[in-house]
Design goal:
Blueprint lengths: L31 E5 L3 E4 H14 L5 E4 L5 E5 L12 E9 L4 E6 L3 H12 L6 E5 L6
Antiparallel strand pairs: 1-6, 1-7, 2-5, 3-6, 4-5
Helix pairs in contact: 1-2
Length: 139
């Protein structure tokens, strides 16, 4: 699973996801992309599950690019622990995704296969998504 090698701080505030994505809104690598339509916190496990769904459906043909990276630690306290006594320890990593962000890109496969692969991947993700193509491509 994806996680940063090192970070400046061990624990982070939860924060809120405001506005639309300013960067990462265009296809840069592949011919087809999966775009987020609403804000969400995507965990490293969800990214990995989506990546596996895409590569399995494509039968390892073509190429996949992951355009998001989980760099925010999420802490939680153990079960049945009383309130107070500080913040819990970091449990997993997540990424704040704004609407309009391209999360995955694919190249080297047919448009129909790419669309089906992204449909399977979007089932693993916690937000509504949209299948996009380069201008002039099929579909």
């Amino acid at each position: 699973m994806l996680s940063p090698k090192r970070t400046k701080f061990r624990k982070a505030h939860k924060g809120r996801i405001h506005g639309n994505a300013t960067g990462g809104t265009n296809l840069n690598f592949g011919a087809y992309g999966l775009k987020a339509m609403e804000p969400a916190r995507v965990t490293a496990r969800q990214i990995e599950a989506a990546r596996r769904a895409i590569t399995r459906h494509m039968r390892r043909a073509g190429r996949v690019w992951i355009r998001i990276f989980p760099d925010v630690p999420v802490s939680s306290k153990p079960t049945e622990v009383r309130m107070g006594k500080g913040k819990g320890s970091p449990e997993y990593w997540m990424c704040r995704v704004k609407p309009g962000r391209i999360m995955f890109e694919i190249d080297g496969v047919a448009a129909l296969i790419a669309k089906e692969a992204f449909d399977r991947a979007s089932a693993k993700l916690p937000m509504k998504t949209k299948f996009i193509t380069r201008v002039g491509e099929g579909d």
